[in-house]
Specification:
This protein has a 3-stranded antiparallel sheet, with no helix packed on it. It has one domain. It is built from no helices and 3 strands. By secondary structure, the chain is mainly beta.
Length: 69
Amino acid sequence: MAAIGKIGNRDAFYIGSGREFVSYVDGPLHLGVNDLSRSAYTGEPVNKRSIYWKDNTGYFDADVYIYRK
């Protein structure tokens, strides 16, 4: 399982836990969890024996801070 993000129409990127980054592009920020053991970069399965959550229940928390110059 991996936390992933996407800004606007750009490609998805890996977040992980405790990730901090500065974006130089604008657009809506989408956060999610990739529970299919697929690459956040290519979308291909990581391996043939991928593990995933069948029920997709639960939640995740995210803190987003926006600083402007």
